[in-house]
Specification:
Number of strands: 30
Number of helices: 1
Structural class: mainly beta
Distance between the termini: 16 Å
Radius of gyration: 19 Å
CATH topology of the largest domain: Neuraminidase
Oligomer: single chain
Strand order of the largest sheet: 7-11-10-9-8
Largest sheet: 5 strands, mixed
Length: about 350
């Protein structure tokens, strides 16, 4: 939280008072410490949001806001204090109205949270069953409007899936088909379809698209190589009816990259690649950690990786042109959400949260 005086007023209070001015960042803080915010979600009301702590040394807990991020607290749950011992890596609201939280805590890996009840009722959805394929720490969980649900491993290539809420969990190993084994690093659900992105450090960047052949009885993604001349991981994906955005890093050049398309993404030639070095004037190494999209408004957040300082580039034309709009003095930024009124929210290291 900023406290530098400006004309005798703490900078944090000055920003908060001026938060209605277009383009001006208002900064706050949330309870997740460490070098990142593992997950950020905002409900459709634009005021109720969720952050999770999962992968850092002190990474435990789920926290929420009902005032757009100005203040945060731990939810009161049944069982009591449930998330105090849960590493939260994934939060999303599904079409059934329930909040789904993924990570690891005791034996549970994904739980459903009824946020309309008081206390909020927590129900296990996917729990460890003692084998490698069904006991991993969940990196991302997403559920479609049809009930198809997928949980992927935070650290490996494993995946579990079920066709609907009444189905058993299945081993999804081999979801990449005839391609080389590749790791999913993020997923997005759009209505009844799932999208993903990822790769490993020695592989080209991948986007994972909904399976074109729906006749298969097992779950699979259709992997598409975004650019065979780039080597590195894709860490964030978002999609809506206007297109897809994927962001990550080119390990060969130590430069963050963003890929955008207004199509279905199946033709590598339809993707537009933007190197962060073409947008910012700073020549230090960069890394994109997260992306968000609402129509033609597209944002990519990350860091100057050697300095662990924040980075944010923004496009208003679907990724054709970009500008550097990094909040002054921000730490590493890892997640962003664009709200229905086009307000941009971002979260990062040391509990940093900002909106404009």
């Amino acid at each position: 939280m900023r406290t530098t005086p400006l004309f005798g007023v703490p900078f944090f209070l000055f920003l908060s008072a001026c938060s209605g001015i277009p383009g001006l960042w208002a900064t706050y803080s949330h309870p997740c410490s460490g070098n990142r915010t593992d997950t950020l979600w905002f409900d459709s009301d634009g005021q109720t949001g969720w952050v999770g702590c999962g992968s850092t040394t002190s990474g435990y807990g789920l926290f929420y806001t009902t005032n757009g991020g100005r203040s945060w607290s731990a939810p009161t749950t049944d069982p009591a204090g449930y998330f105090s011992g849960f590493r939260v890596d994934s939060v999303s609201r599904s079409s059934d109205g329930m909040l789904y939280v993924g990570g690891t805590g005791s034996g549970d890996r994904v739980v459903q949270v009824d946020t309309s009840s008081s206390p909020m009722k927590v129900t296990p959805v996917f729990s460890s069953m003692g084998q490698t394929w069904n006991s991993f720490q969940v990196g991302t969980f997403r559920r479609t409007s049809s009930g198809l649900a997928v949980a992927e491993s935070l650290t490996g290539v494993d995946l579990v899936w079920r066709a609907d809420d009444n189905d058993d969990w299945h081993n999804g190993y081999g979801w990449w088909g005839s391609n080389d084994a590749v790791q999913i690093l993020d997923m997005a659900a759009v209505d009844d379809q799932l999208f993903g992105c990822g790769s490993r450090i020695s592989q080209p960047p991948y986007v994972f698209l909904p399976q074109a052949d729906a006749s298969s009885s097992s779950f699979a993604f259709d992997p598409v190589v975004l650019d065979e001349h780039v080597m590195g991981e894709m860490w964030g994906i978002d999609a809506d009816s206007s297109g897809i955005v994927v962001g990550g890093v080119n390990q060969g050049t130590s430069v963050g990259v963003v890929f955008t398309t207004s199509g279905d993404g199946r033709d590598p030639g339809e993707w537009t690649r933007t190197d962060v070095s073409s947008v910012v004037t700073d020549t230090d190494a960069t890394w994109i950690r997260g992306v968000c999209r609402r129509g033609q408004h597209v944002v990519a957040v990350g860091e100057y990786s050697r300095r662990s300082e924040g980075l944010l580039i923004e496009s208003q034309d679907g990724g054709a042109t970009w500008s550097d709009h990094t909040p002054t003095g921000s730490p590493t930024l890892s997640r962003c959400v664009i709200l229905a009124d086009d307000t941009l929210t971002v979260a990062g290291a040391n509990g940093f949260f900002a909106r404009k």
